[in-house]
Amino acid sequence: MERTVAHELLRIGAVFLRPEEPFTWASGIQSPIYCDNRLILSDPAARRVVEAAMAETVRTQYPGCQMLMGTATAGIAHAAIAASLLDLPMGYVRSSAKSHGRENRIEGRLEPSCKVVVVEDLISTGGSVIEVVEALRAAGAEVLGIASIFTYGIARGVQRLADARVRNVSLSSLDALLDVAVEESYITPAQKQEVLQFRNSL
């Protein structure tokens, strides 16, 4: 699954390598690589692969799941499609509460003690998704874990998730993607090592 999803991400151009002009991640980190999983939604073939993998991951890794909760905004569509495949209820968590109406941060009917899986598109340092988990826990949900499309495997992010007592299962990873990228001639072995050195330095 890791290699299949990685192949699709590379095929649709969702992964950008730009060491000479680094990208700025949401965490503020300057990175030579950027993964834009929003492009998955625009490609039906990639979307079928990823959403089927997401649904299967929830089904096998979190068999007690009663509801999917997407992260705003990137995780919402993936949570909705996977929930449809699994015939589960779905909602999402805003980055902050609305300033109007019911002033919700959590959207959707979340029952007390509901067993929830958070759907996230990408894990880097883990900060934003941990905030979502904490909001759901504060609302009375039992968060079984996270199902994410891609993880950079940054040590700090792995440790933060462990400290927050939350499990993450990713469909693919930076290590798998770089292996496929070299095999399929998207990048050179030297570029692979450059990206790994960047990741391992964080």
Secondary-structure blueprint:
Blueprint: H1 2-11, E1 15-17, E2 23-24, E3 30-31, E4 33-35, H2 44-61, E5 67-71, H3 74-86, E6 90-93, E7 106-107, E8 115-123, H4 127-138, E9 142-151, H5 155-163, E10 168-173, H6 174-183, H7 189-201
Parallel strand pairs: 5-6, 5-8, 8-9, 9-10
Antiparallel strand pairs: 1-4, 2-3, 6-7
Helix pairs in contact: 1-2, 1-6, 2-3
Task: Give a quick precis of the structure.
Helix content is 42%, strand content 23%.
Descriptive account of the structure:
The protein is α/β, with parallel strands linked by helices. Helices cover 42% and strands 23% of the residues. The protein is built from 7 helices and 10 strands. The strands form 3 sheets. A 6-stranded mixed β-sheet has the order 7-6-5-8-9-10. Strand 9, helix 5 and strand 10 (168-173) form a beta-alpha-beta unit. The radius of gyration is 17 Å and the shape is globular.
Characteristic terms for this protein:
two-stranded antiparallel sheet; 10 strands; alpha/beta
* Low confidence ranges: none
Shape category:
globular
Series of secondary-structure elements, N-terminal to C-terminal: HEEEEHEHEEEHEHEHH
Structural class comes to alpha/beta
The Cα radius of gyration reads: 17 Å
Biggest sheet architecture: 6 strands, mixed
